[in-house]
């Protein structure tokens, strides 16, 4: 009798793991296929799709596709462009949004409620609905450079960076976080004669680790992974093109699947590595976007 | 004392200003420009000055009418039929190009149906836009239950105490951190009609009975394929949101349900689901907003084809605003899209207000 009960429990446990694993396969198979295919020559790659070999690094395995991919497109350049745009935007975004949120939460000034409401109202404007008018705006916008005024922002880094620095969600995340910090700390610092900037820099920022991580992760994913529509329409020259738009080289007339898979692997692995390394922070920060609205 | 310490108009403004200026320049202004441009003939580059043209951009997009075609008759008044017995009708262009009907000028057939001996034909000034509108709505209507429901099932699956459960959560979430552009290209290979992985898997599962399908090349399956792929990519994200909702439900409620002898379904129906109400609204809204913005998948996988079966509003806005440099036409589509998104968020406000 007892034996049966134990067996039942074992069976139940087994079914649970079986279900979990089958579902895991659904999410893993395209990714495994991508990495494995990037190591195979095209003829073997196509032949293998008919069997389980599609998911196994067997046969004629090499890094040739990776070398060929670098020959086909200036991948190093694209990668550098994306990383540069991402890093600069993330740093500026965190600085400007956190300072603004600090002002909204801790400093008492005329009009702060109105200004914050206006900013938060922009949450419901999807970028896709302003891309077209913004294209016209940036095509005629001035820029003060070392050689005087320059008209038009197309085909630059700044057109990929400046419009993305501030967004309502980042400000909102900082505001929510700052609201929960003990106000006495700020007032105590003020009593001791600290300037507002010192309070921000020496009291609030050191306490803001979690929200800084969240904002940085979200913005990095946005800039590195999701930037496609915007650079597609404002950056035509290779010198400034980011990694996702650079994919165009690989799906022209003759699709070289192996090289394409190598490129896809190359641009996804850094993000995946980051994710696996700090998956708790990743999941928590992406889940926090759910609070918006 | 405290108020004096925290009050400072100058510093307050100075700290908030950089952020406010940027958000005004790059979000608020373009947003109002969209409305303005949609009432003009603004182009990206043009030697001619921009003119105000009222609502004609919208009329050109939304113009819609139904015309009735009477069958062709021969001299004796008998209806003309072809070899298959199908009734022959005059061509639609005999009406849309007829100077007697200036109101139909430039319109094209969208679809038709039979009504008695007559044919009713729906004509539209911009058939591609209409298809984009319908496809976008179709995408929204299918992906919301698929992705939202799928995510809930995953969350329930992952919300159990088992060794290694975090590993499974990590795997389910993985596609979320990969660019949708990468995913789309990868799935183009999976959906390929000849060597595609999907056809091969289905053939293996049915012992070769399955006939290969060119998933993205067939107007009947293209949009569906994109829906399934998009849900696959995004489902892990909403699983996490559902999970945080599940964890707010008090364990005592489950204990009571267990004591009362509630079945698994009853527990879900009367304990879990009511506790998830706000999460549900949130998940639905987030998926809906993302779904209306559908662009990258289309651009990478199908370019709107085949036969416009995967055209979407954003794709059309970009094609006109950028591709054809028709800023005003693209802006008009953007404004229409914005009102659809606005309507959805008003519904959300209404649903969440009801409770509190």
UniProtKB/TrEMBL annotation, chain A:
Keywords: Cell membrane, Membrane, Transmembrane, Transmembrane helix, Transport. Pfam families: BPD_transp_1. SUPFAM superfamilies: MetI-like. It is found in: Cell membrane. Coiled coil: none annotated. The keyword Transport applies. InterPro entries: MetI-like, MetI-like_sf. Residues 79-278 form the ABC transmembrane type-1 domain. PROSITE patterns: ABC_TM1 (PS50928). GO terms for cellular component: plasma membrane. GO terms for biological process: transmembrane transport. It comes from the Bacteria. It is a multi-pass membrane protein. The chain crosses the membrane at residues 17-36, 83-107, 114-137, 157-178, 199-218, 260-278. Belongs to the binding-protein-dependent transport system permease family. This is Carbohydrate ABC transporter permease. It comes from Maritimibacter fusiformis.
UniProtKB/TrEMBL annotation, chain B:
Pfam families: BPD_transp_1. This is Sugar ABC transporter permease. Residues 133-348 form the ABC transmembrane type-1 domain. Keywords: Cell membrane, Membrane, Transmembrane, Transmembrane helix, Transport. The keyword Transport applies. It comes from Maritimibacter fusiformis. InterPro entries: ABC_transporter_permease, MetI-like, MetI-like_sf. It is a multi-pass membrane protein.
